[in-house]
Amino acid sequence: MREDTFLIVLSISLSVTALLVVSRILSELRLLDMEIGKIVRSAALVNNTFEAAFVVFVISLAESQTVFSSTLWVIVSSRIFIVFSIFVVRPGISWLARRGTPEDEHVTNFTISIVLGGVMIFGFTSDSIGVHPSFGAFVFGLVFPNGPLAVTLLERLDDFITGFLLPLFFVTSGLKTNVSKIQGASTWFTLFMASILSPVGKAAGTVLVALSVKMPFCEGFALGLLMNSKGLTELIGLNHGKDQKVIDDTAYAMMVITTILMNAVITPLLIQIYRPARKFVPHKRRTIQKTKADAEMPILGCIHTPRNAPTIISLLEASHPTKKTPISVFSLVMITNAFKTLEQHTSFVSVQSLTSISPYSTMHEEICNLPEDKRVAFIILPFHKQLTVDGAMESANSKIQMLNQNVLVNAPCSVSILVDRGLSGSKSLIAGQASHNIAVLFFGGPDDREALLYAMRMSEHPGNSLNVIRFFPGLNAVEPTMDQSHDLNDTGILTLQIGEQDKQLDDDCIKEFRMMKATEVSFSYIEKVVNN
């Protein structure tokens, strides 16, 4: 049984993928939000889950002389343990989080102490039923509900765990590694073959599966390389096997060296063979006009600083989400708590917080990729200038201006630039009594039609009034000429040339709009003829 167990543990250790290592590599290469990043993280998560379960069960079974009774006991007791954790412990932690978290969302030290004590109890319980203590700790983290308590635990324990406990674990693993045990040409040959055949076989299998689902060979090979990442999960299994005498010193040293060699070549090789170039060529451009009137409208709100959040939130609140026409908000990059407040105090608004860590030179790629994944119809970007105390506008960051220009060029949906001139209403937001006077300057063209449709949605709010001013060129107006080359740094006047087809679409849009608002006193429509 020991030899069979050794072969199983060895196979599992060679096939495991380290999720933490994969995430770090993807983050460094800015592949987290790309398709390959999502696939490899999902695969690594499933891989880690099965690996942890298989290793602890196999080694636990190896400790017993009676295989059948040991197998039955471990399986039955583990299932009861998991069911008890889901249906009893999880609701209990939720109750504790509500009781131990005051209105200011400050988690007490007593609550945290109880939770950490629960980790020890779970580890002791899993060890008592014949499973490794790490399995109990894993189950405890798995059933732990999301919320302020989970966030506080991560914030307080992350530095201690990653800065002290993990390095200490790696040090002890290194101290257990006795390279001098690898003696003889046959042993070194075995190490060489394990270091070569294992990653090659795994990469080849991954490439074949990728090709079977029409994935390009280059992406399939990169996926195979990433799936060979080794790290913490493998070392836990190896240490557990060594402690239980399933793995001897020679095999342990060989496996640790194999892990180091694999991780040493993955990132450099991946950089050389996989250089994705995103091409933003949407087959169907999503707009507000194409969004059904009775469907949820997904909006992507981009935040650079905390100062951007109140204005965007006020705009979203003024957009009048209802049960018939709800709004789905994707908030990028930082200010997640502010948007959660919007979700709590405004009905029919769902918020999903996203994070992007990338330089300004490539940040537009992240922004333009999200609408493709989330089916977003509307992007809100903050203007690169901010309002000062004396009422003037000053440039906050020139890189934001270039970012906005890149998004305007590449976005697969409608884009708006929100200029903050003091639009706020956090108090009225919570009270539900916000009111705004909305003006639309309609010159014509697809952008103005989008603005008009969005204003129509906002005008459904009982506290909002809408004023539309449509401009027509006079008899003495100078005919504009179409300039094919536009300088992004040019601050001159931009002229518009509206084609006959656009004019007809403008007329239809205005006609429909006036018919819908004909009986409303909070609406006004004015036409003006201008010659300049």
TrEMBL record:
<dbReference type="InterPro" id="IPR057290">
    <property type="entry name" value="CHX17_C"/>
</dbReference>
<feature type="transmembrane region" description="Helical">
    <location>
        <begin position="67"/>
        <end position="89"/>
    </location>
</feature>
<keyword id="KW-1133">Transmembrane helix</keyword>
<feature type="transmembrane region" description="Helical">
    <location>
        <begin position="191"/>
        <end position="213"/>
    </location>
</feature>
<protein>
    <recommendedName>
        <fullName>Cation/H+ exchanger domain-containing protein</fullName>
    </recommendedName>
</protein>
<feature type="transmembrane region" description="Helical">
    <location>
        <begin position="39"/>
        <end position="61"/>
    </location>
</feature>
<dbReference type="InterPro" id="IPR057291">
    <property type="entry name" value="CHX17_2nd"/>
</dbReference>
<keyword id="KW-0472">Membrane</keyword>
<dbReference type="InterPro" id="IPR038770">
    <property type="entry name" value="Na+/solute_symporter_sf"/>
</dbReference>
<keyword id="KW-0406">Ion transport</keyword>
<comment type="similarity">
    <text>Belongs to the monovalent cation:proton antiporter 2 (CPA2) transporter (TC 2.A.37) family. CHX (TC 2.A.37.4) subfamily.</text>
</comment>
<feature type="domain" description="Cation/H+ exchanger transmembrane">
    <location>
        <begin position="8"/>
        <end position="270"/>
    </location>
</feature>
<dbReference type="GO" id="GO:0016020">
    <property type="term" value="C:membrane"/>
</dbReference>
<feature type="transmembrane region" description="Helical">
    <location>
        <begin position="160"/>
        <end position="179"/>
    </location>
</feature>
<dbReference type="Pfam" id="PF23259">
    <property type="entry name" value="CHX17_C"/>
</dbReference>
<feature type="transmembrane region" description="Helical">
    <location>
        <begin position="251"/>
        <end position="274"/>
    </location>
</feature>
<feature type="transmembrane region" description="Helical">
    <location>
        <begin position="6"/>
        <end position="27"/>
    </location>
</feature>
<keyword id="KW-0813">Transport</keyword>
<dbReference type="GO" id="GO:0006813">
    <property type="term" value="P:potassium ion transport"/>
</dbReference>
<dbReference type="InterPro" id="IPR006153">
    <property type="entry name" value="Cation/H_exchanger_TM"/>
</dbReference>
<keyword id="KW-0633">Potassium transport</keyword>
<dbReference type="GO" id="GO:0006885">
    <property type="term" value="P:regulation of pH"/>
</dbReference>
<feature type="domain" description="Cation/H(+) antiporter central">
    <location>
        <begin position="337"/>
        <end position="428"/>
    </location>
</feature>
<dbReference type="Pfam" id="PF00999">
    <property type="entry name" value="Na_H_Exchanger"/>
</dbReference>
<dbReference type="Pfam" id="PF23256">
    <property type="entry name" value="CHX17_2nd"/>
</dbReference>
<dbReference type="InterPro" id="IPR050794">
    <property type="entry name" value="CPA2_transporter"/>
</dbReference>
<dbReference type="GO" id="GO:0012505">
    <property type="term" value="C:endomembrane system"/>
</dbReference>
<feature type="domain" description="Cation/H(+) antiporter C-terminal">
    <location>
        <begin position="437"/>
        <end position="469"/>
    </location>
</feature>
<feature type="transmembrane region" description="Helical">
    <location>
        <begin position="110"/>
        <end position="140"/>
    </location>
</feature>
<dbReference type="GO" id="GO:1902600">
    <property type="term" value="P:proton transmembrane transport"/>
</dbReference>
<dbReference type="GO" id="GO:0015297">
    <property type="term" value="F:antiporter activity"/>
</dbReference>
<keyword id="KW-0630">Potassium</keyword>
<keyword id="KW-0812">Transmembrane</keyword>
